């Protein structure tokens, strides 16, 4: 739960402070104090107010979240309003709230809700009880206030936004708390910009939208954010203007996007291996590099030199794009501020007359070939003796033709052989 302390001074000025830890605050005479839950802009549940000597302690869920030092001093005249109104049952008045036993002031609970405040949507006094002094129920009698919140003139108690950084284009919910419901907005600005979408959420809670536009006023974290709100009732009666600033620790407004003005390099020839210094100028200091290339090669060594000047290195690598002396060198740079707002990409090419880029490594010259020693001349060959001519061969006499052979007479057929008579068998020889 995030709690907010509202301190309304006698002049009507309201000072708003986040209660992140237990805090001790010295009260201002005639000031009114209220603690709200930032999420609901209502009194926190489990709220108990206790007196300890001259100190008023504010407890939430049985933990002390605020000590109002000197609240019960005679010169204090301070008031604690539970809901920001002047309703009798919602106010602890330092000059009137006392419980005396044997002539001495007794410490103890001076206010405690009898039911959960979250259930008390209409803030009715009939639903909210409180403890006065040491355990005695009662009502605070304060003639300076009306008998009920319905008789209290309308007033704005607080105007708050989330305690977070916002950038161009962000829409911020503005919470407005008043002591009456049914009001309408006559006018409303945050950081000098008119809010939109004013809504009555009931119970005196209102909301509107603040849109951060390019060119609005930048606000550093922890610095005051000016507001101005005027509400009116259904009859058109306007309540006093609320102009108390919003003062929180983590709510910077970055409404001016940074821009890159120039990107340049030296107007000189470049070759493989050269590291070329790149100079970037922008509209503000404190930017970081999102991306950056020269001739399609990512730069390195990005440095913030202050006063919106930055530097980087472009190293020419073998095989990158060659650029003639008078041709454009393409660049692309995007920077961002600490809130993450990025500049529009800067792509204006570098155009100079004497900055060629030669990304090809020159070939080493070939060593000359040693001359070949001259060849010794060959001794002349002795001439060959001429060959004696060969006598011509006498021609061969032609061969006489062979006389043809007479044909052979046919052989007469052989007469058939008569058969041989069989041989008689030989008689065996007797020995």
Could you name the key traits of this structure?
431 residues, Immunoglobulin-like, 3 domains, five-stranded mixed sheet, 34 strands
Task: Please tell me about this protein's structure.
The protein is built from no helices and 34 strands. By secondary structure, it is mainly beta. The strands form 11 sheets. It has a 5-stranded mixed β-sheet with strand order 2-1-4-8-9, with no helix packed on it. A 5-stranded mixed β-sheet has the order 3-7-6-5-12, with no helix packed on it.
Write the SSE topology.
Elements: E1 3-8, E2 14-19, E3 23-26, E4 32-37, E5 47-52, E6 55-60, E7 63-69, E8 79-81, E9 91-93, E10 100-101, E11 104-105, E12 108-112, E13 131-132, E14 136-137, E15 156-160, E16 166-167, E17 171-178, E18 184-190, E19 193-194, E20 196-202, E21 205-211, E22 224-225, E23 227-232, E24 246-247, E25 253-254, E26 260-264, E27 270-271, E28 275-282, E29 288-294, E30 297-298, E31 300-306, E32 309-315, E33 331-336, E34 357-358
């Amino acid at each position: 739960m995030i709690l907010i302390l509202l301190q309304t001074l006698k002049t009507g000025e309201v000072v708003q402070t986040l209660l992140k830890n237990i805090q001790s605050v010295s009260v201002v005479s005639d000031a009114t104090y209220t603690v709200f839950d930032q999420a609901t802009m209502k009194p926190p549940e489990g709220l108990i107010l206790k007196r300890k000597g001259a100190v008023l302690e504010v407890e939430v869920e049985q933990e002390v979240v605020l000590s109002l030092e000197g609240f019960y001093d005679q010169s204090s005249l301070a008031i604690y309003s539970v809901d920001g109104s002047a309703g009798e049952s919602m106010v602890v008045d330092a000059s009137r709230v006392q419980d005396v036993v044997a002539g001495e002031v007794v410490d103890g609970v001076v206010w405690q809700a009898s039911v959960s405040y979250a259930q008390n949507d209409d803030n009715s006094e009939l639903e909210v009880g409180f403890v006065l002094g040491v355990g005695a129920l009662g009502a605070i009698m304060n003639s300076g206030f009306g008998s009920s919140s319905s008789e209290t003139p309308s007033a704005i108690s607080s105007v708050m936004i989330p305690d977070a950084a916002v950038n161009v284009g962000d829409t911020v919910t503005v919470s407005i708390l008043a002591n009456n419901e049914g009001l309408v907005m006559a006018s409303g600005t945050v950081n000098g910009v008119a809010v939109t979408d004013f809504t009555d959420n009931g119970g005196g809670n209102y909301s509107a939208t603040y849109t951060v536009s390019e060119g609005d006023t930048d606000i550093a974290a922890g610095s005051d954010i000016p507001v101005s709100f005027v509400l009116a009732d259904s009859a058109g009666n306007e309540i006093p203007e609320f102009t108390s600033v919003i003062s929180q620790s983590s709510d910077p407004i970055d409404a001016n996007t940074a821009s890159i003005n120039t990107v340049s390099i030296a107007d000189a020839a470049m070759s493989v291996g050269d590291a070329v210094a790149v100079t970037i100028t922008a509209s503000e200091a404190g930017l970081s590099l999102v991306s950056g290339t020269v001739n399609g090669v990512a730069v390195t060594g990005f440095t913030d030199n202050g006063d919106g000047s930055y530097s980087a290195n472009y190293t020419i690598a073998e095989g990158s794009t060659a650029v003639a002396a008078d041709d454009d060198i393409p660049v692309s740079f995007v920077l961002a501020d600490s809130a993450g707002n990025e500049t529009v990409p800067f792509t204006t090419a570098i155009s100079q007359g004497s900055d060629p880029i030669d990304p090809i490594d020159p070939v080493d010259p070939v060593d000359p070939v040693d001359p070949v020693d001259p060849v010794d001349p060959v001794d002349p060959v002795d001439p060959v003796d001429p060959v004696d001519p060969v006598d011509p061969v006498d021609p061969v006499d032609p061969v006489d033709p062979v006389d043809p052979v007479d044909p052979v007479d046919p052989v007469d057929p052989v007469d058939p052989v008569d058969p041989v008579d069989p041989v008689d068998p030989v008689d065996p020889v007797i020995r």
